[in-house]
Amino acid sequence: MNPPKRLRIISGSEALTPTGEQRRQEEEEAAVDVSIIMPVYNASCWLDECLQAILEQDFTGSMELSVFDDASTDDSRKVVEGWRGKLEARGISLLMSHHNSAQPRGVGFAKNKAISQSCGKYLCFQDADDVMLPQRVRLQYEMSLLQPISLIGCRVRRLPEGSTERYTRWINTITQDQLMTQVYTSHGPTVVMPTWFCSRHWFLKVGLFDEGGKGVPEDLLFFYQSLRQGGGLSRVNQCLLVYRYHENAATLSVTEETIWKLRVDFLQERVLSHWETFTIWNAGKQGRKLYRCLSPVHQKKVKAFCDVDENKIQKGFYTYEESKEIPKPKIPIVHYKDASAPFIVCVKLDMTGGVLEENLNSLQLKEGEDYYHFN
Hints:
- By secondary structure, the chain is an alpha/beta fold.
- Helices cover 35% and strands 21% of the residues.
- This is Glycosyltransferase 2-like domain-containing protein.
């Protein structure tokens, strides 16, 4: 039960000009529990299924759907408006807006606009081409109440079945601890953007999405900034979203090199700056690429490369030919059993038939302390 409200008598100018505290209380009373945030761009073929799933949510609190159309050239806006009656009959208010530019402004811009026109205490991010399962809002809301400064995710089912098999398995099987330790992997955010749920308070503290447009990984930039601010990560261990894969997905416009640079910078900031020395696990292409991308300060901390390939080990060392130093740096290459922690592991997960994992376990190393994956 809600406690009874205390009445207070106001008069004169105070009655005409609400205090900051009064305004805050009025805004809280006007707010709904959850705003579903949905950017839209040429999504008309997906929208009926997406919106039907929103209608079928078993959440009993108040909800609104906030849609921002980013210069669609199909009939996306018309399709959404066609659902207004059904949504409102279910008690879900619809907020719909768009801009008049001929060109789309990008996913970050559209998300920011959808958030700014909404008033929910919690934000549920929904891509227009995905489908939420009936329990999604309820279960993520319940977890967010307990973790108000965390990004909350969930398990997913990929559609078409079997597409991005390794990526989907990674999304669904990494542990709670690995949500934090594997933030440097090439997969991107360990809590994947289409599953995000968080408090409005936390979103505003972290800041808006980058609005650079096509090719900008606005989700990864926000994700790293949230971690910098001390935010947590968690996941409802149920499948709550059908995550659709198709060739027009916005994430496919982001280049691998853009993601690589962001990951290297974040790794240096969060991990390598706290280590005096470390070993790069992989003397091949990916390990050498990481070394070359490090700042000179962190390059000097690399005491060795380690590997299992006898051909690489027999070479004895890696020479950094691009260096301007004289003589050029030579970094030893050793067998992993002769190397010492901590390690940055530049070998792809789930690609060695379990050999990498067995080798790491044989050294009795702890992920997040003795090694981090950068792969």
